[in-house]
Design goal:
This protein is an alpha/beta fold. The chain is about 30% helix and about 20% strand.
Length: about 600
């Protein structure tokens, strides 16, 4: 559906709204225009949450402020309204809302979906197939699909903007691990128009297929959050699901006790019986006033659960790790995997003009002219595949700043950065925007933080943490993700019996091992290690160092190791740069620096390491 077609469709639906619409003060004309504009925007950007400004509606609990506001804004005197509450259009809430809408707008009312043009609903999409003349308005209790996996509103906005939905896949992975099936019912996440993940609250999974390429327009209104989002006609609505775990709808072991239907969404009716959730459809079937054949053809019976399709995730069925051949990239034009030239970072005003008067020769990193802090300046190095380079210095030396600039956590003030795996090393990575830099962390860069909580979700299982990186890289096979996670965890010596335990229950050393496994999940070309053993007991740190040493030896990966401990640098690296007050004061082969340091600062570091 083109943008012009979608906009024209909504314009036609709203054409019946005229200035003569009666009003009893429930929603003023200014608020209606605001909501209509938001609805038009939502149709043009399917699945995107559009904010709108309006006061909370003074309505009874359960009436759905967001849905009511949308309905009052888009309905006109030529329309017919139907209201459904939990599938029932004859209940107290549904009846009162229908009368309220009709009385305040001058539209007609009906309990027949075939006669209605605007259907306001909570929990259900009508069993009666809807067509292009229908507007379905849903009252939404929880509009944000990321709320369960991300608390920060700003971070949720960023994730939507960058289509960064790996944590949603992790939530499905964890559900499968815990329960053997995806148990989520209402609010099942879907991808709308191939772009935005949307929560299908408040409808059950049974109704999700009715949104896919539907003929009708669906408008979702969240009153408390002041958000509107839409599914225009003929829009793809695809449930998030793994390639080897089919999407399933709810199943009831029986038929409707009233009409005998077995192709509708059934709810418990007591004494082991079931009944159609949609009371209008149930009554029409009993009266032989329904096209049962057409309904059955559209019912999602092919999506009912099949036990054979469910993955086995018990401990005894964890896929056996498969040893893969080491990935050796094709030779490129460059001998290096990472090249850093003249990198600098200034915190505060002045930029390069703040640099004079700072550094080891002046004994300060604070600019005498601007007061800015010159955290790093004129730092350059390269590292080849299979090589490890160290950045060593005391706290405040600038080594971690350099690493953060390489990662993209900080924007460098000067310099250039190249990765052989990005445009064959021709593009200065520092010129890329934030989203592009973050994508590099998935395919090209692997990061091991000093604090495992910075690189892991502690409430997620060990396998789930690895799944986050794999799903971000595009992996969609549950079995393949499980096998890859098992392979990596075994390699870093984490017992497979702990694969499905939350990382929060792990010791510090084991958390660090899980973080290493996660960093290596996508076979990155460059591995960045930030104080990988700081905070660990000596024996645990020694084990982690042994693990890292063997991993670096067996993989053709370029590594950058940041540490204040010369023992760590000596154990892991081939060459090293010594930093003091933001500058490189000495560099060379690590073993030579350790045996014969020239700079006084390096001599002090070596002396401290030998004690």
């Amino acid at each position: 559906m083109t943008l012009a077609t979608a906009t024209s469709h909504v314009d036609d639906l709203l054409a019946g709204i005229d200035a003569a619409t009666p009003s009893v003060g429930l929603l003023d004309e200014g608020a209606k225009r605001e909501i209509r504009r938001a609805a038009l925007t939502a149709v043009c950007v399917p699945g995107y949450q559009v904010p709108f400004g309006s006061r909370e509606m003074p309505v009874a609990r359960g009436w759905g402020s967001g849905g009511l506001q949308v309905t009052l804004a888009v309905i006109g005197t030529v329309d017919t309204v139907k209201v459904i509450d939990q599938g029932d259009d004859a209940g107290v809430n549904a009846t009162n809302l229908r009368r309220l809408i009709a009385g305040s707008t001058g539209c007609t009312e009906s309990a027949d979906s075939r006669e209605a043009t605007v259907i306001q609903t909570r929990h259900r999409v009508p069993e009666q197939p809807l067509h292009e003349g229908h507007v379905l308005v849903l009252q939404v209790p929880v509009p944000e699909p990321l709320r369960g996996v991300q608390r920060s509103v700003a971070e949720c906005a960023r994730m939507h903007a960058e289509a960064d939905y790996s944590t949603m896949w992790v939530s499905l992975y964890e559900d499968l691990v815990r329960n053997g099936v995806i148990t989520k019912s209402t609010g099942y996440p879907v991808l709308v128009g191939g772009r935005y993940v949307m929560a299908t609250t408040p409808i059950p999974r049974w109704d999700v297929p009715r949104l896919h390429r539907s003929e009708h327009l669906s408008l979702f209104g969240a009153g408390r959050e002041k958000r509107i989002f839409a599914v225009p006609p003929h829009t793809d609505v695809e449930p998030l699901t793994f390639d080897d775990v089919p999407f399933e709808v709810e199943a009831a072991d029986g038929v409707c006790a009233r009409c005998g239907s077995d192709d509708t969404f059934l709810v418990e009716a007591g004494k082991g019986r079931f009944a159609c959730s949609d009371t209008e459809w149930c009554a029409r079937v009993q009266e032989s006033d329904a096209d049962g054949q057409a309904h059955r053809e559209l019912a999602p019976l092919h999506l009912l659960p099949t036990r054979a399709a469910r993955p086995e995730v018990q401990e005894s069925h964890i896929p056996a790790p498969q040893v893969q051949e080491s990935h050796i990239p094709e030779p490129g034009r460059h001998e290096w995997a990472l090249l850093v030239e003249g990198l600098g970072k200034v915190h505060g005003p002045g930029g390069s003009s703040a640099v004079p008067g700072t550094g080891p020769s002046h004994g300060t990193a604070v600019s005498p002219s601007t007061g800015a802090i010159v955290a790093a300046w004129d730092v350059g190095f390269d590292v080849a595949p299979g090589e490890a380079i160290g950045l060593i210095g005391e706290s405040g030396s600038g080594k971690s700043t350099v690493l953060r600039c390489v990662v993209g956590d900080e924007r460098a003030s000067a310099g250039r950065l190249f990765l052989a795996g990005v445009d064959d090393g021709d593009t200065d990575v520092l010129t890329l925007d934030g989203p592009a830099r973050r994508k590099l962390r998935i395919a090209t860069l692997g990061i091991v933080h000093q604090d495992p909580s910075d690189g892991l979700a502690l409430d997620v299982t060990a396998g789930g943490n690895i799944a986050e990186r794999l799903t971000a890289a595009g992996w969609r096979s549950f079995g393949a993700i499980r096998a890859r996670a098992a392979e990596l965890l075994e390699r870093v010596e984490v017992p497979l019996s702990r694969m499905d335990d939350p990382v929060r229950t792990f010791s510090g050393g084991m958390r660090q091992r899980v973080q290493i496994a996660k960093a290596l999940a996508t076979d990155p070309a460059v591995l960045l290690l930030d104080e990988p053993t700081t905070g660990l007991d000596a024996s645990v740190a020694a084990g982690v160092l042994d693990l890292l040493r063997s991993l670096l030896a067996e993989r053709d990966v370029a590594a950058v190791v940041v540490s204040h401990d010369f023992a760590v640098i000596e154990a892991l690296t081939d060459r090293s740069l010594v930093m003091q007050l933001g500058r490189v004061v000495e560099q060379g082969l690590t073993d030579q620096l350790f045996r014969d340091p020239h700079h006084p600062y390096t001599q002090r570091l070596v002396a401290a390491a030998r004690r």
